[in-house]
Amino acid sequence: MPLPSRDQAVDLLHEHLKGDYVLRHSRATEAILRQMAPRFGGDPDLWGITGLLHDLDLELVGEDQHRHGRETVHILSERFDFPTEGLEAILAHNGDVLGIPCRSMLDHALTAGESITGMVFAMALILPSKRLMDVNPKSVAKRIKEPRFAANVSRERISHHEALGLTQLEFCALAVQAMQSVADEVS
Ligand SMILES: [Fe+2]
């Protein structure tokens, strides 16, 4: 079977992941990757579905981060003719642990894109309204410079936007807008 359709990908996601946060994180990552694809000559479906499924094995591998990414690649390769570009990006997004560097645009986009979601969600939570729709990209960019804010979000991984030729503010604006476009699904 070729790249899974979006419906197949959503079914697969719910088959493997139950946690509310990881599901919202997956959907937010998809939205960001879909938004980025046309800017970098990527296929929006491949980029989007890679974003949606990048953490598919998270609940399966638990604490064993050395399996994170590898198990997802195994599941996707068994069931689909998933493009190598997408599989490589899924491995590279855990490249710190797996010793795999980011090489392609999709590798960098997934690594930066999935990381920025944590900053944007954290930003919404500290607003009086707690609404994603009220998040301002400039505030996100400012908070990236504060290491204690959402301290578990890797600034190094976010900085992969530089490899895409996007400034930090451009990247924050793109990510916030993409997440807001699916606010009803990720809030
Ligand atoms: Fe992730």
Short recap of the structure:
The protein is mostly helical and 187 residues long. The protein has helices at 6-16, 20-36, 44-53, 58-61, 70-79, 84-92, 95-98, 105-126, 137-144, 155-158, 168-181, 183-186. The chain has a single domain (6-186), classed as Hypothetical protein af1432, CATH 1.10.3210.
Task: Write up this protein.
- With 187 residues, the protein is mainly α.
- The chain has a single domain, classed as Hypothetical protein af1432, CATH 1.10.3210.
- Helix content is 63%, strand content 0%.
- It has twelve helices and no strands.
- Helix 5 (70-79) packs antiparallel against helix 6 (84-92).
- The chain starts with 5 loop residues before the first helix and ends with a helix.
- The model has no long low-confidence stretch (mean pLDDT 97).
- Fe (ii) ion (FE2) is lined by residues 25, 54-55, 114.
